[in-house]
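Students often ask why inverse folding is considered easier than folding. One informal answer: many sequences map to the same fold, so there is more than one right answer. In these notes we will look at a single instance of the problem. The structure comes first.
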Protein backbone atom coordinates (compact mmCIF):
# COMPACT_ATOMS: atom_id res chain seq x y z
CA UNK A 1 0.00 0.00 0.00
CA UNK A 2 1.11 3.55 -0.67
CA UNK A 3 1.69 5.78 2.32
CA UNK A 4 -1.40 7.79 3.25
CA UNK A 5 -3.86 5.31 1.74
CA UNK A 6 -6.05 3.00 3.71
CA UNK A 7 -7.43 -0.39 2.97
CA UNK A 8 -11.08 -0.42 1.96
CA UNK A 9 -13.47 -2.72 3.76
CA UNK A 10 -14.40 -5.77 1.70
CA UNK A 11 -18.00 -4.57 1.36
CA UNK A 12 -17.00 -1.42 -0.51
CA UNK A 13 -16.67 -1.67 -4.27
CA UNK A 14 -13.05 -1.77 -5.40
CA UNK A 15 -13.77 0.09 -8.63
CA UNK A 16 -14.01 3.50 -7.00
CA UNK A 17 -17.39 4.09 -8.66
CA UNK A 18 -19.30 5.03 -5.55
CA UNK A 19 -20.38 3.59 -2.24
CA UNK A 20 -21.36 0.00 -1.75
CA UNK A 21 -25.03 -0.75 -2.38
CA UNK A 22 -27.12 -0.59 0.76
CA UNK A 23 -29.23 -3.57 1.76
CA UNK A 24 -32.80 -3.23 0.58
CA UNK A 25 -35.37 -2.28 3.14
CA UNK A 26 -38.35 -4.56 3.48
CA UNK A 27 -41.40 -3.01 1.85
CA UNK A 28 -43.98 -1.61 4.22
CA UNK A 29 -47.30 -3.47 4.59
CA UNK A 30 -49.00 -0.62 2.67
CA UNK A 31 -46.51 -0.96 -0.20
CA UNK A 32 -46.99 -4.74 -0.32
CA UNK A 33 -50.79 -4.38 -0.31
CA UNK A 34 -50.60 -1.86 -3.15
CA UNK A 35 -48.31 -4.18 -5.13
CA UNK A 36 -50.71 -7.12 -4.64
CA UNK A 37 -53.61 -4.94 -5.74
CA UNK A 38 -51.69 -3.82 -8.83
CA UNK A 39 -50.79 -7.44 -9.61
CA UNK A 40 -54.44 -8.50 -9.39
CA UNK A 41 -55.46 -5.70 -11.74
CA UNK A 42 -52.79 -6.60 -14.29
CA UNK A 43 -53.55 -9.42 -16.65
CA UNK A 44 -50.53 -11.17 -18.07
CA UNK A 45 -50.27 -13.66 -20.87
CA UNK A 46 -50.37 -17.21 -19.52
CA UNK A 47 -48.97 -18.91 -22.59
CA UNK A 48 -49.79 -22.60 -22.72
CA UNK A 49 -51.33 -22.42 -19.23
CA UNK A 50 -54.38 -20.65 -20.66
CA UNK A 51 -55.46 -23.87 -22.39
CA UNK A 52 -54.27 -26.22 -19.64
CA UNK A 53 -57.14 -27.94 -17.81
CA UNK A 54 -54.97 -28.73 -14.79
CA UNK A 55 -54.10 -25.06 -14.36
CA UNK A 56 -57.74 -24.04 -14.65
CA UNK A 57 -58.83 -26.68 -12.14
CA UNK A 58 -56.12 -25.48 -9.74
CA UNK A 59 -57.22 -21.83 -10.12
CA UNK A 60 -60.82 -22.90 -9.48
CA UNK A 61 -59.74 -24.84 -6.40
CA UNK A 62 -57.88 -21.79 -5.09
CA UNK A 63 -60.95 -19.59 -5.62
CA UNK A 64 -63.21 -22.08 -3.83
CA UNK A 65 -60.72 -22.64 -1.00
CA UNK A 66 -60.36 -18.90 -0.41
CA UNK A 67 -64.14 -18.41 -0.42
CA UNK A 68 -64.79 -21.36 1.91
CA UNK A 69 -61.96 -20.34 4.25
CA UNK A 70 -63.37 -16.82 4.51
CA UNK A 71 -66.86 -18.15 5.23
CA UNK A 72 -65.65 -20.66 7.84
CA UNK A 73 -63.39 -18.19 9.68
CA UNK A 74 -66.14 -16.97 12.06
CA UNK A 75 -66.56 -20.59 13.19
CA UNK A 76 -62.81 -21.03 13.75
CA UNK A 77 -62.92 -23.93 11.31
CA UNK A 78 -60.70 -24.71 8.34
CA UNK A 79 -61.91 -26.37 5.12
CA UNK A 80 -59.99 -29.53 6.11
CA UNK A 81 -61.64 -29.60 9.53
CA UNK A 82 -65.05 -29.14 7.92
CA UNK A 83 -64.29 -32.01 5.54
CA UNK A 84 -63.36 -34.32 8.40
CA UNK A 85 -66.49 -33.39 10.35
CA UNK A 86 -68.65 -33.98 7.27
CA UNK A 87 -67.11 -37.42 6.66
CA UNK A 88 -67.52 -38.43 10.31
CA UNK A 89 -71.13 -37.23 10.21
CA UNK A 90 -71.81 -39.36 7.12
CA UNK A 91 -69.90 -42.36 8.56
CA UNK A 92 -70.22 -42.52 12.38
CA UNK A 93 -67.54 -44.77 13.84
CA UNK A 94 -65.22 -44.41 10.83
CA UNK A 95 -61.54 -44.96 11.53
CA UNK A 96 -58.89 -42.31 11.02
CA UNK A 97 -57.00 -44.29 8.39
CA UNK A 98 -60.10 -44.48 6.19
CA UNK A 99 -60.67 -40.73 6.52
CA UNK A 100 -57.02 -40.01 5.72
CA UNK A 101 -57.30 -42.15 2.60
CA UNK A 102 -60.65 -40.72 1.49
CA UNK A 103 -59.55 -37.09 1.91
CA UNK A 104 -55.95 -37.68 0.81
CA UNK A 105 -54.54 -36.32 4.08
CA UNK A 106 -51.32 -37.72 5.53
CA UNK A 107 -52.00 -39.84 8.59
CA UNK A 108 -49.86 -37.67 10.88
CA UNK A 109 -51.57 -34.52 9.62
CA UNK A 110 -54.98 -36.05 10.16
CA UNK A 111 -53.96 -37.09 13.66
CA UNK A 112 -53.09 -33.49 14.54
CA UNK A 113 -56.32 -32.26 12.93
CA UNK A 114 -58.40 -34.76 14.92
CA UNK A 115 -56.49 -33.77 18.09
CA UNK A 116 -57.65 -30.16 17.58
CA UNK A 117 -61.24 -31.23 16.90
CA UNK A 118 -61.18 -33.44 19.99
CA UNK A 119 -59.73 -30.63 22.15
CA UNK A 120 -62.57 -28.38 20.99
CA UNK A 121 -65.08 -31.05 22.00
CA UNK A 122 -66.33 -31.62 18.44
CA UNK A 123 -65.34 -35.29 18.05
CA UNK A 124 -64.62 -38.26 20.25
CA UNK A 125 -61.93 -40.78 19.49
CA UNK A 126 -62.01 -44.30 20.85
CA UNK A 127 -60.09 -47.50 20.21
CA UNK A 128 -61.86 -49.71 17.68
CA UNK A 129 -63.42 -52.88 19.04
CA UNK A 130 -62.80 -54.68 15.73
CA UNK A 131 -59.22 -53.47 15.14
CA UNK A 132 -57.34 -52.44 18.26
CA UNK A 133 -54.77 -50.48 16.27
CA UNK A 134 -57.43 -48.14 14.86
CA UNK A 135 -59.26 -45.25 16.41
CA UNK A 136 -62.87 -44.67 15.47
CA UNK A 137 -64.43 -41.25 15.44
CA UNK A 138 -67.86 -39.88 16.30
CA UNK A 139 -69.23 -36.37 16.35
CA UNK A 140 -70.14 -35.01 19.75
CA UNK A 141 -73.40 -33.11 20.23
CA UNK A 142 -71.35 -29.90 19.94
CA UNK A 143 -69.74 -31.17 16.73
CA UNK A 144 -73.11 -32.05 15.21
CA UNK A 145 -74.52 -28.66 16.24
CA UNK A 146 -71.55 -26.80 14.70
CA UNK A 147 -71.83 -28.84 11.52
CA UNK A 148 -75.53 -27.98 11.28
CA UNK A 149 -74.63 -24.28 11.56
CA UNK A 150 -71.84 -24.57 8.97
CA UNK A 151 -73.70 -26.54 6.29
CA UNK A 152 -75.72 -23.49 5.11
CA UNK A 153 -72.47 -21.51 4.90
CA UNK A 154 -70.94 -24.17 2.66
CA UNK A 155 -74.15 -24.24 0.62
CA UNK A 156 -73.83 -20.45 0.16
CA UNK A 157 -70.30 -20.94 -1.14
CA UNK A 158 -71.54 -23.57 -3.60
CA UNK A 159 -74.29 -21.17 -4.68
CA UNK A 160 -71.71 -18.43 -5.30
CA UNK A 161 -69.70 -20.84 -7.44
CA UNK A 162 -72.82 -21.88 -9.36
CA UNK A 163 -73.64 -18.22 -9.98
CA UNK A 164 -70.11 -17.56 -11.21
CA UNK A 165 -70.29 -20.55 -13.60
CA UNK A 166 -73.98 -20.49 -14.43
CA UNK A 167 -76.26 -23.22 -13.07
CA UNK A 168 -76.09 -25.45 -16.18
CA UNK A 169 -72.29 -25.25 -16.33
CA UNK A 170 -72.09 -25.90 -12.60
CA UNK A 171 -74.13 -29.12 -12.97
CA UNK A 172 -72.05 -30.21 -15.99
CA UNK A 173 -68.81 -29.55 -14.16
CA UNK A 174 -69.98 -31.51 -11.11
CA UNK A 175 -70.93 -34.40 -13.36
CA UNK A 176 -67.66 -34.26 -15.33
CA UNK A 177 -65.47 -34.08 -12.23
CA UNK A 178 -67.36 -36.86 -10.43
CA UNK A 179 -65.07 -39.44 -12.08
CA UNK A 180 -62.30 -38.19 -9.74
CA UNK A 181 -64.28 -38.57 -6.50
CA UNK A 182 -62.92 -42.00 -5.63
CA UNK A 183 -59.75 -42.02 -7.68
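Output (designed amino acids):
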Amino acid sequence: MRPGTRRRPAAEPQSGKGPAPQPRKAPSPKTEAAARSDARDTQIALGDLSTNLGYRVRRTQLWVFKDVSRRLAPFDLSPAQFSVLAVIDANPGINQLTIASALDIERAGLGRLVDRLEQRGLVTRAASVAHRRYYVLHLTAAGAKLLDRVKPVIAASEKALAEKLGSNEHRRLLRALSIFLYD
